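Mods, move this if it's the wrong board.
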Amino acid sequence: MKEYEKKEKVIDERVMDERVTEVQFPSSNVIHDEALVQEFERGIGSQVFILTPSFPFVFIGEITAVAGDNVVVDVQTTTIGELENRIWSIHIDRIEVFYIEQEGLPQIPELRDDM
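Not the wrong board. Structure tokens:
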């Protein structure tokens, strides 16, 4: 192969690489986050149990809204009594585990400390 043919081939491959990279697919993180947002949107009005890796760790309450990638919860129960009966906005990236009550499935138990 002649030198100028090699250069043309290299240029053609670069152009093809640029065309291929123009097509962008969402990352698995974007797909995961969007699926979580949709799950919480379907759960608006339902009771939810949420565990987070940071304080106050546990939230139990009603999903009242989803704002962007935050779930808004009217919290009735958490690990600290003074933080209960408040509206919390929880970023979905901070949620480790969650359970949204659904008809026909187990309900979130009422946690009491007067036993």
